Amino acid sequence: MRKSMVPNLAMAGCLAVIAGCTSGSVGSRSGGPGGNPYGMFRCDGGTAMEVRRASGNAIAVSAPNGESIVLPASPAGQRARYGADAYALVIEGRDALFMKSGAMPLNCRR
User: Fold this and answer.
1) What is the pTM of this model?
2) How confident is the model over 25-50, as a mean pLDDT?
């Protein structure tokens, strides 16, 4: 297996695990299925993250590492899991988990 494929396979595995851990039957006003995923989050280590609406089912994220990224809903049409390329974001109520391939997941809270 080529070395460049390893991070992509690791992210795909993380997304598959996360998809199985979230429940599609629970909703809340502050995130999760049918809820509002937008707002400011305070993250571990004193960092912050802002989530804003983008086009379609995507969100715009000012990530804790300073990057600005757009993540589509994954799978399309839901409002708790977002991911693209090396990034994933899962929002459940007041909690969010921000993941970047090759880095430790970061816990955030509203």
Assistant:
1) 0.69
2) 71
